[in-house]
Amino acid sequence: GENVEQHPSTLSVQEGDSAVIKCTYSDSASNYFPWYKQELGKGPQLIIDIRSNVGEKKDQRIAVTLNKTAKHFSLHITETQPEDSAVYFCAASRAGNTGFQKLVFGTGTRLLVSP
Amino acid sequence: DAGVTQSPTHLIKTRGQQVTLRCSPKSGHDTVSWYQQALGQGPQFIFQYYEEEERQRGNFPDRFSGHQFPNYSSELNVNALLLGDSALYLCASSLRTAGTYNEQFFGPGTRLTVL
């Protein structure tokens, strides 16, 4: 079945450092890859997404890359700040003609940014 | 503009009981998806409703059922509760657009504890 693996499970960095989280997906038909940030006691919040026709996307300090051949995608956060501390989830989805899609999530990465 | 709302926030039940969780989608959205998030894990897709019909279903037993109302709000019902049903139940809403990617917005979740 569909599966998304995510690494590392925990990541500790110093403020100002960069953080990289990597995911691998199994369903070669996946074509939409969102990243969510989940803070304690809250639901996941979309922070950036990438579609299969794009190799890289950037939004201020956040960037995502996609390697369709290897079925890998990664989240890059530069100049980390303490407020970036949260659990980050990658997800993969197959968006088809029906407009109905389900998200398959990774297991999450707990990012801790120390001042 | 209200986002996705869920009720109740927390719920404690005993094994064998039945529970109903409620979700109101973001204004303008017509599709509701439900996810189960066990502690320390990523969300897992339960099912998705559109036009009051179940459109997709994940690998969950028939004890999990749902409903969507004409105003697009939704309920998740779980019968014969097991200890393993203890989790955060997340509702996500989206606007169905055929042939493209439909961003899913998540609510804060309902924390269900089964004793």
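qc> Chain B touches chain A through 32 residues (CB under 8 Å).
qc> done
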